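note to self — DONT lose this again. spent like an hour looking for the file last time. sequence + predicted structure for the chain T wanted, 130 res
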Amino acid sequence: MKTSIRWVLKILMVLTFTSGFIYGAAPNHSDHFSNVPSSMLAKANPYSGHPQAVLAGKKLFDHHCSACHGRGAEGSGRAPSLKGDVIQYTAPGAILWFLKKGDLKHSMPAWSQLPEPTLWQIVTYLKTLP
């Protein structure tokens, strides 16, 4: 049963990313999520739906992420916007995985030194962006 769920989640991610290309809205950073382990795809956000986690996540984002991604996560010359379909349709566990591992090739630091609850709060905030 677990294997079936993993495959369904992987298929949904592929369809999500593919639809962006079909409709001309190709996400510029979806490839960051292409190697997410299936165990992370199935991981649920323990703070989902918690307003206090959103507020905490915004403060953490402002402190750790806004220098590159902008105060409102709109992106800058240094980093892409985090608003839009890629973040909204990516599994929360995949976002957590990416935050932990980073992508030095694209100047994204690994935030693995931050406690997992802190990273989940950032994910919770990101999921509230339009």
